[in-house]
User: What shape does this take?
Amino acid sequence: MKVSINQSTLVLVEGDITKEETEALVNAANDRLAGGGGVDGAIHQAGGPQIMAECRIIGCCPTGQAVITTAGNLKARFVIHAVGPIYTGGAKHEPQLLASAYRESLHLASRYGLKSLSFPSLSTGAYGYPLEEAAEIALTTVISYLREHPEINTVRFVLFNRATFDVYCKVLSRRLNLVE
Assistant: This one.
């Protein structure tokens, strides 16, 4: 699914984020930048040890924030490591922290002059964030940012499986009907 937001393009695809050719990939990182499973493990494995070496130098990243490293062996130039919240029911500011992780990733892309980036669905794997609620936050945050920041040409959501892709498509369709 592909839509225009002002001069920018927002794309939803099902696939493997490590194969993306955008300038930056967003990694679903943990606050210790220690590597892990899921998207984090896949990016570190495909990108090689250079990414982890840079993460060790940075040390940590608070929940709701993001940091940037080079991309090692990946086709992208950079990896933006975004730390989404662990979902505990929503009472510990999880929606605000999740929105912040997306927004801070986009701020880094703008600051580094990047024209394209690819996101996974942050916090919806091991961190347990309900998928539809997370998709709503992700898409609302990205659409809002693109409306104010035309310097980013393309944002891709690279969704690991069909079920996640379908939820994101449903939420984006609903969002566009509310906004347009």
